[in-house]
Design a protein that fits this description.
6-stranded mixed beta sheet; Rossmann fold; 10 helices
Length: 256
């Protein structure tokens, strides 16, 4: 469901990124990036620091305007449909920025109302609190949460309205091993119902959660392939990724 009862089951193509480009002065942060996500499943967005992963996610979430190209979410162009398109996606920014002085339940209810859920805001908060394991933290100040629970609140925020598309930037960064295991289980569960794009440096996370990877290098898409295909390129998954991101000449883009 999305806004006040609107169904979100649908489009075969959940996200279509076409020629996304963003420059800062003379430097291209993202250059002509194109890919498609269709239906439920998890896709890893990989690359070295500065490769353009976070900028790509922000373009796909509508947090940044593209200099060229476009992102279409469930048939709605982010540039022209505005709130209607953004209602179809949930975005977890790196570090899960929250209002430190608000309690978890009140923060999520505010976010639900800002997303247009209004009459069913409380029910939506109840649902995401349960799904993300936040029952005991509901009355805790956001500023008093551990990093792991901050990430869970950020994911709960993204799940409000049950959007078909979820965009997560480094969801397990800074978590302890137990928290990583718990969050990976949650990500696997979410991938059964949502199209999930995860930017991460944790290769173990990609192998555990994702069936497909997008690899970026210097703002461009270097590869788009199944996890097994990338692993088969070298002795280890890490070596295959290093080859793609460090080569002087990019290999041809591989598509599933």
């Amino acid at each position: 469901m999305s806004r006040d009862g609107e169904k979100t089951s649908g489009s075969a193509e959940t996200l279509v990124a076409s020629g996304l480009t963003r420059r800062y002065g003379e430097r291209f942060a993202v250059k002509e990036v194109s890919f498609t996500l269709a239906g439920p499943g998890a896709v890893g967005l990989l690359g070295r620091n500065g490769a353009g992963k976070t900028t790509t996610l922000r373009l796909c979430a509508g947090w940044l305007a593209a200099d060229a190209g476009r992102a279409v979410v469930c048939g709605r162009d982010l540039a022209t449909s505005g709130p209607d398109a953004r209602a179809k996606l949930g975005y977890l920014a790196e570090g899960a920025p929250l209002y430190a002085e608000m309690r978890v339940g009140a923060y999520l209810e505010l976010r639900a109302r800002l997303k247009g859920l209004k009459t069913r805001a409380k029910g939506e908060v109840d649902r995401v609190v349960l799904r993300c394991g936040l029952e005991r933290e509901r009355n805790t100040l956001c500023g008093q949460l551990s990093r792991g629970f901050r990430q869970r609140v950020g994911i709960a925020d993204a799940l409000l309205g049950e959007p078909p598309l979820l965009l997560f930037d480094e969801p397990t960064s800074g978590l302890d091993p137990a928290q990583v295991v718990e969050l990976r289980e949650l990500l696997r569960d979410l991938a059964l119902r949502h199209a999930l794009l995860i930017s991460t440096h944790a290769l173990a996370e990609v192998e555990a959660v994702c069936s497909r990877v997008l690899v970026m290098r210097e703002g461009a898409l270097a590869a788009d392939c199944a996890v097994d295909e990338l692993r088969a390129r070298a002795r280890t998954f890490e070596e295959a990724l290093l080859d793609l991101t460090a080569a002087d000449v990019l290999p041809g883009v591989v598509r599933p």
